[in-house]
Amino acid sequence: MALIVQKYGGTSVGSAERIKAVARRIAATADQGHRVVAVVSAMGDTTDELIALARQITDEPSERELDLLLSTGEIVSCTLMAMALRALGRDAIALTGFQAGIRTNATFSKALITRVEPERILRELERGRIVIVAGFQGITEDLDITTLGRGGSDTTAVAVAIGIQADRCEIYTDVDGIFTADPRVVPEARKLRSISYEEMLELAKLGARVMHPRAVELAGVYHMPVVVRSSFNENPGTIIQDEDAMENRKKVRGIAHDTDVARITIVDVPDRPGIAAALFQPLGDAAINVDVIVQNVSHHGVTDLSFTVSRNDLRKALRTIEPIARELGATEVTYDADLAKVSIVGAGIQTTPGYAGRMFKTLADQNINIISITTSEIRITCLIKESEVERAVRALHAAFALEDENAPDLAPRTVGQV
Amino acid sequence: MALIVQKYGGTSVGSAERIKAVARRIAATADQGHRVVAVVSAMGDTTDELIALARQITDEPSERELDLLLSTGEIVSCTLMAMALRALGRDAIALTGFQAGIRTNATFSKALITRVEPERILRELERGRIVIVAGFQGITEDLDITTLGRGGSDTTAVAVAIGIQADRCEIYTDVDGIFTADPRVVPEARKLRSISYEEMLELAKLGARVMHPRAVELAGVYHMPVVVRSSFNENPGTIIQDEDAMENRKKVRGIAHDTDVARITIVDVPDRPGIAAALFQPLGDAAINVDVIVQNVSHHGVTDLSFTVSRNDLRKALRTIEPIARELGATEVTYDADLAKVSIVGAGIQTTPGYAGRMFKTLADQNINIISITTSEIRITCLIKESEVERAVRALHAAFALEDENAPDLAPRTVGQV
């Protein structure tokens, strides 16, 4: 008998029928003798509809009021879920974020959870109840309602699981788990039974849109096991947990790709100290996430500087950067919105040169040009043309034999290398 | 400069355009130098839509969850109203029932306000903000969200006004104020400038659907002046307040009528002690409000007993009463659903026989049969046929010269009578 936190996303609770189906799944978990807390997102497009309603009033709704408005979406879905469970004869109770003890800071629209006060949830569980919690929301010290921003409900679920010391957190979504690559791109992609937090974090960041990175990160810090699985079938899913580093450090676990990439290049910017700060500080102030930064070798005291942003941020980034570039004496600001990132992910990749070599050779064999390269401890990412990215993913998936769970490590090792 | 609580009902905030119009009105009040708290209902049919959503899940939604679900309707409207005010350049803040300190008992779906903790509202007013409060909702000691049932937002407004010691409470609705009779029935009906709580209570109960009786009652207990006026124009409305009894005790102030009446008659019920209790206790337990009760003179140890209920409650009342009537040996249970009540209302009416006489004669002159009569301190009510009620209202309005504010008291006084 375990204490389990489950999370169901907007698609999983998108209609009355879907809510009833999820209620049956929650009830089945409880019938197995487990104690269950379920965190739910707003139904389908509710959040977008509420935003549209606010826009009928004003183009710039105040963040505090918008958060309070949006919080109603998850209140609706959590009450309906509790009703559906009661209709199945189960004792269930719906709790809003504040009732569930989700305390946050006061950064409206992207609040951070500061702590979870678990007393109410634990009391309801003690009474034998199934507890349904409204995801994506919390309350400040001043009793203002906040929303948690992107990935909010995932984060609520993990935070609640940590707060009540659950045995595990289950994230229900519309895919079967974490795959070695996007199955829509690579038909042979294989579902992973297990993956480490760090690897999942790289995959999640790079576009495996299954679970939000901040929730993965939180789970990792507290070593909370997370199972990612489908709410539409009974397949077992993928468990994200602490893994034995010895065994896994020398394996590529997955190929991630991300087409939400735009690149801005500032041409002929003077190569002197302070230039990078002058350019990137304002982007940070505008809350624009800058990714791959590449600075060319300097010629005659000027250089080209390029960086990538998400495509949504492209216009805003250009607006921010163009006056500064002019001021710095750059000749031109250009951009590409037809690029993509492809990555190999696996613990210990960076410390083993063989992986990078195999990756670059695979892309070269496909005649795919690498625009730039970035790496982390457990990842190597190449920026390439968007039109070539699916071919790149398929080729890399095959090159590292990811379709075969028992394939040997395919990086050629140098004798004596650790 | 006054401290004013305003309340806007569902029709007044029924669309984005209406919300903006109400926001301009609130802003205008603030611009006059007043401090304003506005209580809002849910937009138009929101509450019905939420109930329909719950019914898609289950026929019997749990009351606690239904209350939490319905509370979202007023959260939406109060956030939109605050946004609309900010769009007009005013500093405004939306507060849910619990943030506004509305504490209630735990009787879900018809909770009673136990107290208002005014600190947050007062703090926001201190900051120069217009405060928008979600009506119809509160929070229990266990931090569960409740709704206040019928007339909830009116009651919220009056309770907040009392809690923050406002100078007055303004109820905005879709009519111009309290009239001497329903203007749709009596074209000459005159808007009253002022009325007492007791008189308003009788009028409100009897179908002047402008302000809920429980809110009138609450205002009366705390002597909170209430202005009822239209949100669609600038007319001054009617003020409900403590009135000089000396001056008003001898005047008919209005003619009320109510067609939501059904009568049940239990034929040949034994006339012995305990019968009334046996019949009416179960109706009370079933939350059915019983109004006019008439027991005929007994013949041969049996009598006929009739009472009225609201038409909505007719079926339920019949289901409740029929088995009991059979058990008691009554020969038959009959009902009429085509009756109506017509009343004259005014302080001190009951102590002056002249009013009753004029009322009965007026109805007799119209050849309208009186089925039964009930009275209170300030009201005389006749049960008549529904088909005759509008004619009755017009005749009574004319008989007491209510179209003329300065008409003398038209009850023939007996010399020496107080």
Element layout with pairings:
The structure is a homodimer of 418-residue chains.
Chain A: E1 3-8, H1 16-31, E2 35-40, H2 46-57, H3 63-87, E3 92-95, E4 102-104, E5 113-116, H4 119-126, E6 130-134, E7 137-139, E8 145-147, H5 152-163, E9 168-173, E10 194-195, H6 197-205, H7 213-221, E11 226-230, E12 238-240, H8 245-248, E13 254-270, H9 275-285, E14 293-295, E15 302-309, H10 314-328, E16 332-345, H11 353-365, E17 372-376, E18 379-385, H12 389-399
Parallel strand pairs in A: 1-2, 1-9, 2-6, 3-6, 9-11, 10-12
Antiparallel strand pairs in A: 4-5, 7-8, 11-12, 13-15, 13-16, 14-15, 16-18, 17-18
Helix pairs in contact in A: 1-3, 2-3, 5-7, 6-7, 9-10, 11-12
Compact summary:
Chain A has 418 residues and is of the alpha/beta class. Chain A has two domains: 3-173, Acetylglutamate kinase-like (Carbamate kinase, 3-Layer(aba) Sandwich), CATH 3.40.1160.10; 245-413, 2-Layer Sandwich (VC0802-like).
How would you describe what is shown here?
The structure is a homodimer of 418-residue chains. With 418 residues, chain A is α/β, with parallel strands linked by helices. Chain A has two domains: 3-173, Acetylglutamate kinase-like (Carbamate kinase, 3-Layer(aba) Sandwich), CATH 3.40.1160; 245-413, VC0802-like (2-Layer Sandwich). Helices cover 35% and strands 25% of the residues of chain A. Chain A has an eight-stranded mixed β-sheet with strand order 3-6-2-1-9-11-12-10, sandwiched between helices.
